[in-house]
Structures are given as structure tokens and as C-alpha cells.
């Protein structure tokens, strides 16, 4: 939390000291047997214990107070589960109780009033949204139909890297986060919107967003604002002050995204009009527009729903893939022997006369293990997206009151020494021959969540990550910039809706396959 905001709230806390006594007396009258946790301050609760990396702060608190812990953020109790057993109880055993989402300023202002997939409250609209995802947007047939797009964009990236390397004196080129995020963005925009809206550089785009860098800024801002601890969400009576300035920023990015979404829908409507009876849906927006006024739907999706779904698909799909691939590459640079084993597997299974395809992935168990180990140590969302107790519940002998926010710290689970040998070390071998998967059934590894609120597009995300990483490792020899040693590579992180590297990865790549392959 920003120092200025915290100072303001501490002043309020001193002026409202009696509030804590009222809270305690009210709780005792209700007779709750609450989980253990630190004593909250008046007004601010336990915000004073949460640092810049909340998942790590909460991890340290859970070591003291246990696998099920009660915190208080402002006016709301927050229950944190930090073990496989607690994750299973919350996400599976009591999934029906903890299936709702909290109402917050960011979701109100940036998801068209909770009209998206991720943040819509539990009810008929959410059930319908989930059904659309499972049967229409992310069905096996739909995901398979976009395989050529994923392959095209990976090839475009390696062609671009090869061209840059060939034009330089050293025959090498620096690869950074922008390359990975552009790859993810182009894959997602072609699948969702039907075309690339941006070129490989900073080319001008048609419509209200003029450059790739501007669109990336919009995405980064959207994701950041959906991951921050906004004071007004937790202490409702100071919401109107917008102490941290987040609401003002939310309204700005909402306006920018809405202009872009209107442009997208207008383009799609024009193509429908132009093609008439010959029109065929070719992307996810087409599918959603077909459903927008479908009389068979329980609740009309409408134009607002189409925009909310589309924004969700772009933001979620772009960020998760590029961030995970960047963390995987970072770990491989810290562990050269693992890097060599991965490329050896690719040479053995694929050979050096062609590129990796999605059909190769099941035959690359070490690559799969690298992805799993990356998601264990660097989960996309270290604190799973919050849930809300729809009613009073009993979990592990403790009472969870209705309205409590519930978090699962998968970062802590991924570092549990009782689950993982040498938990702080990057060891893909631990997953060779292991039954543990990322599909939400194995609570040791939950990068995409579990239960009915699990990420519906996880299978698509995995395909993009695996194909991207495999071809980058296969197509290039890698090294750190001149003068940098493996141990000097920072692994510091920045917390948000997803947790990224604090310092973007900067590495040097050189082609390692026959020259003619890079022109395919």
C-alpha cells in the first residue's frame, strides 16, 4: 500500500479505536470459532502486515498461524488457505459455498459491470457464461481449429529473430519481454478478433488504438488495476476519496478499451452485412455475436456482454502465456544443465530438419516437466482469484462467516517442503513419471485454479506456452548478455493480477538450425 494512503488510514485508525472492540464483541456474540490470525488494527485491519509482494507476506504469516488463517483487510474478514488440504476443502468439498466473487471497484469499472467471464457473480448469467466457454469458445474442436494460427505466429517470431540476427555483425539478437508479449498478443487477437491488429513492430493500427505499445500499456494497466489492493474496496466508507487514485485510472482505461471494442464490433458487423448469407463465423467475436441475441439463452448476452467477454479473452490469454514463458526461460538460464537436457530432447525427438509442432508436444516429457516446474515456482496468479463465502461454512473445524473473502496461496503450496524435495530449487525431473497435472484435479499444482471457477481457457493457454517455448529452445542457441553470469540474473518479481519479473529478461539468441528453415 502507498505510504500516503497508509498514513491517512492510520490517522483514521487512531480516531476510531473503539471500532475494534465493537467488532470483537459482535463476533463473540455470534459464537464463531474463527481460524487463528494476527490481531487487526482498528479500521485498517491487517493491511500493515502486507508488503509489496502480498503472497510472500501472507506466506510468512501462515508459517506462524497455520494452513487456515484469518486476516482482516479493512472491514472484511479474509480467510487464507495455504495447503493442499485447505485448497481441496475450499475449491472442491465446499465449492458451492465459495463459488462467488467479491464486488470491487476494478471489476465494476473495467468489466462492464461484472459482465465478463472471470468476475461475474454467481448466478444464472455466470452459469451461462461458463457454458458458452466450455461448449463454444474453448471446445476441443474450436481450439484445434486455431492450431494453424498458433503455428503461424511462432514462425513469425523465429523469422523475425533470425532476420535481426542475420542483419547484425555478431549474428545474434537480443530477445526481450516485448517479443514474447507480441507473440502472445498476435496469437490471441487472431483467434479472438480474426486478425492481427498490430504488426511485428510498432506499426500503426486501424481504429482508436494507434500503436502496439499503446495497446500493451492498456493491457498492463488493466491487469495491474485488477490486482492492486484498493483501499476503497476494503474500507467502503472511504471509497469516495479514491485515496490511491486507482478509480480515476480505472475509468480512463475503461474508456480506452471501450473505444477499441466498439471498433472491433463495428468491423465484424460490417463484414456480416457485406457477406450476407455467405457469412461464416471465423473467430471468437463472430461466435459471441451469433450468441448475442440468441433467443435460447436464459439471459441476453447483448453488445455489452460481447465486449466484456472479448476483453476478458484478450487480457487473460495474452498475459498468462508471455509471463510463464519468460519465467521458464529465466529458470533455464539459471540452470544451464537443465537447458542442455531440454535441447537434447528436442534434437532427439524432433531432429534439426523441421520445427516443433503441437503433435510433438506429447512426446516431449521433459519440456512438459519444465512447464510444470515453472508454474510450481512462478504461478501465474500466486493468490488465486478471490472467492466469497455465500453462506456460513465450517472448514477444518473452523467457522467461516458469510461474506468472508477466501484466498488460496498457491505460491506457498508450491514451496511446501512436505510436498516437494528441495522446494526452492528448479528441478523439472520431479515431474517425470509423476501423476501430477495442471488440470485442477491435483491440488499440489493449481496454476489455473480448480472447480467450477477454474480458468476455462487453460488448455488453449498451455498449447501456446508449450509451442512457444519448444520452438524458441529448438531454433536458437541462447546466452546472457556479455559480461553477465547466471548467478547475476535477477529473479525479483512484481505482484499484480499476474506476477511478472521485476526486470524484464534480456538475452542473446543465435540461430542453431539450417538456414532454410527460418524462411518457412
UniProtKB/TrEMBL annotation:
Needed co-factor(s): heme
Protein name as it appears in the record: Uncharacterized protein
Keywords: Heme, Iron, Membrane, Metal-binding, Monooxygenase, Oxidoreductase, Transmembrane, Transmembrane helix
Pfam families: p450
Entries under Gene3D superfamilies matching the protein: Cytochrome P450 (1.10.630.10)
GO molecular function (one): iron ion binding
Species: Oryza rufipogon
Residues annotated as transmembrane: 6-23, 70-91
Family: Belongs to the cytochrome P450 family.
UniProt binding sites for heme: 455
Entries under InterPro entries matching the protein: Cyt_P450 (IPR001128), Cyt_P450_CS (IPR017972), Cyt_P450_E_grp-I (IPR002401), Cyt_P450_sf (IPR036396)
